[in-house]
Amino acid sequence: MRKLVGFLIVVLSFLELVVAQEISYKTVENIHYYPEALQQSDTYLASQARLDIYYPEDKKDVPVIIWFHGGGLTGGSKEIPQALKNWGYCIVGVGYRLSPKVKASVCIEDATAAIAWTFKNIEAYNGDPKNIFVSGHSAGGYLALMSIMDKSRLAKYDINANDVAGLIPFSGHTITHFTIRAERGIPGEQPIVDAYAPLYFVRNDAPPTLLITGDRELEMLGRYEENAYFYRMMKVAGQQHIKQYEMQGYGHNMTHPAYPLLLSFVAENSVKSEQ
């Protein structure tokens, strides 16, 4: 795995130089993804439920990567990872409300609302709504999984979750998130699977999925094992378009070696537009 990632980093670094010389980018910050009426009635929502967009100015219908930050659903802020810039893609960095100011389940609601907003508005930023990929690290990976695996969430916005081009969680919970368990008085070492667990929604028609975690001996709280179980149960359900990678030698903060895998996955799974 280290050799594969190293090779990808070298190749992608060279390609980045080529792409960067040909494309200019623009960043638009603090876009609200909830309606104005909700922002006026909830100042915390108005301050947190915002997103930033980094996109190529002179290239249309480009693949879109929605990125959710980590922080245990209690911390962190919206970000556009530097490693995802200069590839010709539209990157959406999403902020969301945090526990304990809201119940942790509200984080999932915000993530879903941001994805729905992206589907309906990203063409204005040269993104292709047919090529939207959803990713994030840790809590962000969990939000990516929950928003897409539970199809009922995007259905509230008249969007089919299966229209997402790909799902790439970095070290995300597939069981019920530990912050949601903590709100119920359940110890972090006690796993549960309920309607707040991506595992609860395994199915054979989910979008192509790439699961990435750190080394099983260095990761936190059995994160590798629960992702491995999610992978296996998706296979049992009949899902053929799913892969799992373990970043050997890296712990929970395994984003650096994982970004090339994300970029490669987007390139491989993007639907080519008919022009």
Question: Can you tell me about this structure?
Answer:
This protein has 275 residues and is of the alpha/beta class. The chain has a single domain (2-269), classed as Alpha/Beta hydrolase fold, catalytic domain (Rossmann fold, 3-Layer(aba) Sandwich), CATH 3.40.50. It is built from nine helices and eight strands. Strands 1-2-4-3-5-6-7-8 form an eight-stranded mixed beta sheet, with helices on both faces. Helix 4 (104-121) crosses helix 5 (139-149). The mean pLDDT is 94.
The strands making up the biggest β-sheet line up spatially as 1-2-4-3-5-6-7-8
CATH architecture: 3-Layer(aba) Sandwich
The percent of residues in helical segments reads 25-40%
Query: Number of helical runs?
Result: 9
Number of strands: 8
Domains counted in the coordinates: how many? 1
User: How large is the radius of gyration?
Assistant: 18 Å
Low-pLDDT segments, ≥5 res = none
Gap from first CA to last CA: 37 Å
The CATH homologous superfamily: Alpha/Beta hydrolase fold, catalytic domain
**CATH class, anyone?**
Alpha Beta
Strand content: 15-25%
Helix-strand category: alpha/beta
Average per-residue pLDDT, rounded, comes to 94
Question: Main beta sheet: strand number and arrangement?
Answer: 8 strands, mixed
Short description:
The chain has 275 residues and is an alpha/beta fold. The protein is built from nine helices and eight strands.
